Amino acid sequence: MASHIKVPPGGQKIVPGQAIPDNPIIPFIEGDGIGIDITPVMIKVIDAAVDKAYGGKKKIHWMEVYAGEKSTRLYGPDEWFPKETFDALKEYSVSIKGPMTTPVGGGIRSLNVALRQELDLYQCVRPVQYFKGVPSPLKHPELTNMVIFRENTEDIYAGIEWAAESEGAKKVIAFLQQEMGVNKIRFPLTSGIGIKPISIEGTTRLVRAALKYVIANDRKSLTIVHKGNIMKFTEGLFRDIAYKVAQEEFGAQLIDGGPWCHFTNPNTGREVTVKDSIADAFLQQILLRPAEYDTIVTTNLNGDYISDALAAQVGGIGIAPGANISDNYACFEATHGTAPKYAGLDKVNPGSLILSAEMMLRHLGWIEAANLVIKAMEAAIGDKQVTYDFARLMDGAEELSCSAFGDAMIARM
Ligand SMILES: NC(=O)C1=CN([C@@H]2O[C@H](COP(=O)(O)OP(=O)(O)OC[C@H]3O[C@@H](n4cnc5c(N)ncnc54)[C@H](OP(=O)(O)O)[C@@H]3O)[C@@H](O)[C@H]2O)C=CC1
Ligand SMILES: O=C(O)CCC(=O)C(=O)O
Ligand SMILES: [Mg+2]
C-alpha cells in the first residue's frame, strides 16, 4: 500500500522517558464531520500560543496521519484505519485527533474505540471545569469541577456481540441455556447478545492512575461510579477492586467500618476520601450537589454517559476536552463527535479540541503555552465573542464562526 504520511522536516520524535524536544513531531487525525472545521483552528491557536510563550524557541511540527472517511478516500474504500497510521501514532507517542463517525446498528465498528484498544489507551481522562461567562443550565455551574477517569478498553466497548437471529447469537444462547443453566433470556429466539468483560487488572491500573492523579493534583476525593447492585460481577467487581487498590496501594483506612475509606496525601497532608456512588443516583447527585464530587473513576459505558452529562453542566460538549492515555502513548481528543449537520459550515465551537490540545501542552510540560490558551479562551468568552452554541444562550453575545473564534482567542493571548 502506498504511503501518504509525510514526515515534516526539522521535527524530532518524542521518545517516552526522554526529554521533550523543542521541535516535536505531533501526528494529527483531522477527523470526520466537523473535524474539517475544528482541527485547522486548533492547530492555528496552539501554534500561536507556543510562539507567543517561547518566542520561536519551541515549535510543534504537525504531521497529518489518516483515519476515517478521509483515509478511505486516500488509501481505498475499505481502509478506515491504515496500518501506517497506527504505526505512526505509536512511533511518535503523543498525538491528537478529531472525531470519527461510527454508524449505528451495522457497519464498521468504532474507529475511536479501535484506536484506544490498539494502543491500549486505558485511561480516558476528561476534566470538567467551568469557564466564567459560559451559559449553563445550572444556577451555580462554578461548583462543577471534576475530572473523569473512564476505563477505555473493556466493558461492552470490547465489541463482543452477536446480532439477533445470527448463527453466533443462536450458538451463544444455546451454550448459555444448555451448558450454563441460564433460563432467564426472555426472548431467546430474537435476542442480540453482548458481552461485558471487566477485569481485576484493567480496574486496578485505572484506579491506580486516578489515585496518582489525585495525589499529584491535590484533589480531595475519588468517587467510584458503578452499577454494581445489578451487574455484580462486572460493575460490582470494579467497585470492590477500586476500594482494594485504595487500601492496599495507597494505605486507605476504612471510615466507620467502610466501604468508604480515606488516606492522607503524602505530598500535601490533605485528607483524600475514597467513596462510591451507584451510577443512576450519581447522575442526579452531580446536578443537585456537584460540589461533593471531585475525581471520578468509572467503567467505560458509565464514563461515556457521565462525560456528556457533566459537560452539559458547564456549557456543553462544545467545550469538553479529553485525553486517552496509556503507559507509553497519549492521544488527545474532544468528548464530542462529528456533529454531521454542521460539517464544513465553519460554525461549531472548536473549544473542545483546543482544550484537548491544551491538555497535550501540559502533558509535554509546555505549561506557559497551555496557560496562554486558557487565558485566551477565558478572555474571548468574557468579551462575549463566542460560537453559536454559547451565543444562543447568552445575552449580548456576538456569534462568531469557528475560525473567527480561534482568531478571537489569538488576539487575546
Ligand atoms: N470520539 C469520537 O470521535 C466520537 C465520535 N462520535 C460519533 O460522532 C457521530 C455523531 O454523534 P452524535 O451523537 O450526533 O454526537 P455529537 O457529539 O457529534 O453531536 C451532538 C450535538 O452536540 C453538539 N455539538 C457537538 N460538537 C459540538 C461543537 N464542537 N460545538 C458545539 N456543539 C457541538 C451539537 O448540538 P446542537 O445540535 O444542539 O447544536 C450536536 O448536534 C456518531 O457517528 C458518533 O458515533 C461521538 C462521540 C465521540
Ligand atoms: O466511537 C464513537 O463513535 C463514540 C465514542 C464516544 O462517544 C466517546 O468516546 O465519548
Ligand atoms: Mg461519548
UniProtKB/TrEMBL annotation:
Residues the record lists as binding D-threo-isocitrate: S110, N112, R116, R126, R150
Annotated positions of the N6-acetyllysine modification: K139
Top-tier EC class: oxidoreductase
Binding site for NADP(+): T101, H336, G337, T338, A339, P340, K341, Y342, N349, Y388, R392
Residues where Mg(2+) binds: D304
Cofactor: Mg(2+); Mn(2+)
Residue ranges constituting the Isopropylmalate dehydrogenase-like domain according to the UniProt record: 25-409
EC number: 1.1.1.42
Alphabetized InterPro entries for the sequence: IsoCit/isopropylmalate_DH_CS, Isocitrate_DH_NADP_dimer_prok, IsoPropMal-DH-like_dom
Catalytic activity line of the entry: D-threo-isocitrate + NADP(+) = 2-oxoglutarate + CO2 + NADPH
Keywords: Glyoxylate bypass, Magnesium, Manganese, Metal-binding, NADP, Oxidoreductase, Tricarboxylic acid cycle
One GO term of the biological process aspect: glyoxylate cycle
GO molecular function: isocitrate dehydrogenase (NADP+) activity; magnesium ion binding; NAD binding
SUPFAM superfamilies associated with the record: Isocitrate/Isopropylmalate dehydrogenase-like
Cofactor note: Binds 1 Mg(2+) or Mn(2+) ion per subunit.
Gene3D superfamilies linked: Isopropylmalate Dehydrogenase
Signal peptide: none
Phosphoserine sites (modified residues): S110
Residue numbers carrying N6-succinyllysine: K97
Site (Critical for catalysis): Y157, K227
Stored Pfam families: Iso_dh
Taxonomic superkingdom: Bacteria
Coiled-coil region list: none
Subunit structure: Homodimer.
Family: Belongs to the isocitrate and isopropylmalate dehydrogenases family.
Name of the protein in its database record: Isocitrate dehydrogenase [NADP]
